[in-house]
Amino acid sequence: MRSVAVTNAKGGVGKSTTAINMAAALVELDCRVLLVDADPSGNAALGYFPRGAPAVGLADALLEGSGLADVAVATEYPGLDVVPPGDRLGNCSDQMGGVQGLGQGREFRVRRLMKGLTGYDVVIFDTSPVLTPLNVAILYAVGEILIPIDPCVAALAGVRALEELVKTVGDFRMEFTDAGDLAITGVLITRVDRTLVSKQIEAEVRSYFGPIVHDLVVPASVKFREAYARGMPLIHYDRLGPAATAYRAAAQAFLEGRGGSAAATEAPTAPDLDDAEAPDLTWREAS
User: Fold this and answer.
1) Region of 210 on the Ramachandran plot (φ > 0 left; ψ -120 to 50 alpha; else beta)
2) Could you tell me the end-to-end alpha-carbon distance of the chain, in angstroms, rounded to an integer?
3) Fewest C-beta in 10 Å: which of 7, 149, 154, 257?
4) How many CB atoms lie within 10 A of CB 91?
5) Are 125 and 176 within 8 A, CB to CB?
6) What is the per-residue pLDDT for 105?
7) pTM here?
8) pLDDT averaged over every residue in the chain
9) Cα-flanking dihedrals φ and ψ of residue 19, to 5°?
10) Domains of the chain
11) Where are the alpha helices (DSSP H) in the chain?
């Protein structure tokens, strides 16, 4: 089972849209996918349940000790389940920032939830754009990172902050777990338009990240809003459009281990760690 976090420290880059459409595209490729919405805003879950995501979700798994499979909700697309954030997810992240309750062993909270999870080929986490303790815990749990990035002037600023966090988490993963290093294995350029600035920033992103940048970009389109309002992934709403083509290509590259890295192998099983064994790291939210 492979696991990937769709994340970027900068908001408004099409992160939830990417998670929604990558999940749907992987299902088209005969994968069974679990999409975990780890953002209190619930944008990824609302992409499949436009009338309101279920109140029970990831928060309940963290607070009550439920398994991810227990709070997963089937979508109308066979092979694709969603774990909503749950009404209390914001409180969970706040508690993880302390030293009591969920703060104990916080870095391994999500990793423990992943233990014993079966029946899925890929688990996708959609994260919030703020560097919360919950997002750090997700980085300890997943095997790969996919970064959506829009071609704006501040495009690389948030990514550099994320890279520093990935390096720090990767070092601790190597020391405290058997998960191995943590790497950014794909970068997907989103919300591309025909302006000169967009082309220049795209060139900078490709120069900075090299071969891990996906070949096809996701163009800006009003069809994203239309699809979202109907609770449909864009790849089903506008099946032959260029954005749908880009997401399908990204999903195929992900499965083949392309997009910049060697093919990922099966994620190792999380070790049994006592709370006291978790490193005591101090995290702060990005301003």
Assistant:
1) left
2) 35
3) 154
4) 15
5) no
6) 67
7) 0.85
8) 83
9) -60, -45
10) 2-257 (3.40.50.300)
11) 15-28, 43-46, 58-64, 68-71, 89-96, 109-114, 133-141, 155-176, 196-209, 223-229, 234-237, 242-256
